[in-house]
Design a protein that fits this description.
Elements lengths: L14 H10 L4 H19 L2 E4 L1 H17 L10 E5 L27 H9 L2 E6 L11 E2 L3 E2 L1 E2 L2 E5 L5 H8 L5 E6 L5 H7 L2 E4 L18 E6 L2 H11 L17 H4 L8 E4 L10 H16 L3 E4 L8 H16 L12 H10 L4 H24 L2 E5 L30 H4 L4 E8 L5 E7 L5 H15 L1
Parallel strand pairs: 2-3, 2-8, 11-12, 11-13
Antiparallel strand pairs: 1-3, 4-5, 6-7, 8-10, 9-10, 9-14, 13-15, 14-15
Length: 463
């Protein structure tokens, strides 16, 4: 089968387009999977988005899906759509090493996390596992185990992190969709840097197992090329799993059924800096322009800050405590082998007392109260996703910046992990150098459907 139009190349198609082609009989899951595996073979040597690719397993799943489509009975919403999985989620039959040389790959690996269980039940095709910094601890993606993951837009720059492998895979055409985790921006940071869609739903909306040591900061969600694909994937990921006692009850309506709802006339707050962030002037101009276009498209945009101070100190206490909790379970000798920056966080976490931790949780709780009151007036909050564009790969902070930690250059993301609110990054434009800039849309807790609907509308307006 030939594909004369580049837009119909299977590796360039969205999940929705692939399912439509399967249903029409113009493309099979096997053909789509073969094309994407070819793209991985051609591109991933430069990008390093995958830490594991399993063509044999993918093609077996694709052939099973093809048989279902041929019989007229697709198993699920995205049956036969190839997907990559961040190497944080347990996946039966594959090691989950979390970017660490201290994790024994021999297993046994006999359990699916809720995320991978739901994807498997839906009939999706598993391409492989994507890279992550060690235990997903920072906002860029490199590790002692897998090396540096690069941005397919400009391979001299970072893909962001910690779901950088997933973002790079989707942006490079090495799979239409992926699933990542987000404890401080780890879906939204790389989505912004790589120019894709990344959605962090309300905490508990996507069940997790085993429980994350980062506790209520931890979220999981879709990474896609379109908001529609993200909504479809959410309808799969948000199905219940009894292994997560903090999971939310099933939704009443589907996300895919809500993304076309009327959103014109909503009152949207626009905060260019949250009152404290320093933003690159070119990034600020691109986001300002995007917001003006949304205002012209009948969203009622009001420039205002939500009224809280930078909660970075409290976030870093919570983050260090979570990292130390996980790393304490690593084998003897791990301290000398882990990422040097992670070792520093580990050591700090060991000094955090119960009182320190509860004080930080109190800051997070007050932040949630502040945002709850804010959303009594404003339906949504829009900010830049990132104050900067992707910087040189292989560094934890922009070279020459004088910064000493990744939370210093991610001021727009981690506050909304502390509040557990849904937040999405969509492309807002590109700089003169061609680097993507992201727009972040944040809603009240449990308003995941609204955030997706406004993101879909914004995606249409911004083109």
């Amino acid at each position: 089968m030939s594909y004369p139009d580049s837009n119909t190349q299977p590796a360039a198609m969205t999940a929705v387009e692939l399912v439509s082609a399967y249903a029409a009989g113009t493309l099979s899951p096997v053909e789509a999977t073969e094309a994407i595996l070819e793209a991985i073979a051609a591109r991933d040597g430069e990008v390093n988005a995958y830490c594991l690719v399993d063509p044999d397993r993918a093609l077996v799943q694709a052939k099973d899906s093809e048989a279902r489509w041929n019989s007229g009975y697709a198993r699920g919403l995205l049956d036969g759509v190839p997907i990559s999985i961040k190497d944080i989620f347990l996946t039966e039959g594959w090691p989950t090493r979390r970017g660490s040389t201290s994790v024994d790959p021999s297993g046994p690996w006999q359990v699916d996390s809720p995320v991978t269980a739901r994807l498997r039940e839906d009939g999706m095709v598993f391409l492989g596992k994507t890279t992550t910094p060690e235990i997903a601890w920072k906002g860029v993606t490199d590790s002692p185990l897998t090396g540096i993951t690069r941005n397919p837009v400009d391979p001299t720059t970072t893909s962001g992190g910690s779901s950088g492998g997933s973002a790079a895979a989707v942006a490079a055409g090495m799979g239409p969709v992926s699933v990542g985790t987000d404890g401080g921006g780890s879906i939204r940071i790389p989505a912004a840097f790589c120019g894709i869609v990344g959605f962090k739903p309300t905490h508990g909306r996507v069940p997790l197992y085993p429980a994350s040591p980062f506790g209520p900061l931890a979220h999981a969600g879709p990474m896609t090329r379109t908001v529609e694909d993200a909504a479809l994937l959410m309808d799969i990921l948000a199905l219940p799993d009894p292994r997560d006692p903090t999971a939310l009850p099933p939704t009443v309506a589907t996300f895919r059924g809500q993304i076309s709802r009327e959103v014109r006339g909503l009152t949207v707050a626009y905060s260019p800096t949250l009152g404290y962030a320093q933003v690159d002037p070119e990034v600020a101009a691109i986001v300002d322009s995007a917001v003006r276009r949304l205002a012209d498209a009948e969203l009622r945009v009001i420039a205002t800050d939500p009224g809280f101070e930078d909660p970075r100190d409290a976030f870093e206490v919570l983050w260090a405590a979570g990292a130390a909790t996980m790393l304490a379970k690593f084998p003897d000798g791990a301290r000398e082998k882990v990422d040097t920056g992670l070792r520093t966080v580990w050591e700090r976490g060991e000094t955090v007392s119960a009182v320190d931790y509860l004080d930080a949780r109190a800051v997070a709780a007050q932040l949630g109260i502040t945002m709850g009151a804010f959303h009594d007036t404003y339906d949504l909050l829009i900010t830049p996703t990132m104050p900067i564009t992707a910087f040189e790969a292989g560094h934890d902070v922009p070279p020459g910046s004088g910064l000493d930690g990744w939370p210093q250059w991610t001021p727009f993301t981690y506050p909304f992990n502390m509040t557990q609110q849904p937040a999405i990054s969509i492309p807002a434009g590109k700089t003169a150098a061609g680097l993507p800039v992201g727009l972040q849309i944040i809603g009240p807790r449990h308003s995941d459907d609204l955030v997706l609907a406004v993101a879909r509308y914004a995606e249409h307006v911004l083109g």
